[in-house]
Design brief:
Distance between the termini: 73 Å
Number of strands: 0
Helix content: over 70%
Number of domains: 1
Strand content: under 5%
Amino acid sequence: MNIIWIIFKLFIIKLTNFSVFIFFSLIWGLFFYSVFKTNQVSIKKTVLIFFSVQILIFFSVFVLDINQFNPFYRLIEEGNSFVNQVVGFVLGVGIFEELVKLLPVYFFLKYSKEPLLPQTVVFYGLISGIGFGVFEGVIYQISVNSKLDYNTSFFMNIARLTSLPFLHAVWSGISSYFISFSFLYPIKRYSMWLLAIFIPALLHGLYDVFTWSLIGLFIAYLGVALLIIYLKKAKDFQSKITF
C-alpha cells in the first residue's frame, strides 16, 4: 500500500506541474496571439514550435548534458570574478539558450512555402521563448526551488512561471526578428545571424548577472523596448539593409 500511495503522490505532483505549465503557457500564448498575430500565423506551426523547443532543451541538457562541453558555462559559478560571470552568462548561458529557442523558428522559416513577414516570425519566436521559459520554470520548481524555504520558493515559482518566461519570449522575439531578414535578404544573412544571436544573448546574459536589481530591471525593460522599436521600424530597417 505504501508503494501505491507513493506512486499516486508522484502522479499527482507531475499532473499538477503539467497543469501549471499548460495554464501559464496558454495565458502568454493567447496574449501574444492577440497582439502579434498576422494572417500568416498557423496554429499548427505555433503548437509545433512550442513543443519542439522543449524537446530540444530536454535532449540537449538532460540527455546529452551539452553544457559540460561549454567552457564558458563553468564561469557562472559562485565565487568567480564579476568579469568571468558576465562572460559566462553571455557566452555560456545566453548564446546557448537563445540558439535553442531560435532553432525551431529557423527551420520553419527555412522550409516555409512563402516568405514570412517579420511580425509573423517574431510571433513564432515569442511562442518558442514561452515554451522554453515555462518549461524551464517547471524544472526549477521541482528541483532548485523545492529546496528553498516556503516564502522564497513561492516567490521564485511565481517569477519563473510569469515574468521570466515573458523575458525569454522577448529575447527570442528579437532574435527571430533579425533571422526573418536573413531570409528576406540573403545577401545580408551573416550580419543578420550575428545580430540575431548577439543582441538577445547579451541582454539575456546581463540580466542573469544583475537579475534582482535596478540594473536587471532596466535590462528587462530595454529588451521589451527594443522589440517594440524593431517592429515599428521594420520598414525603415528593410530600406536600409537593401543598400
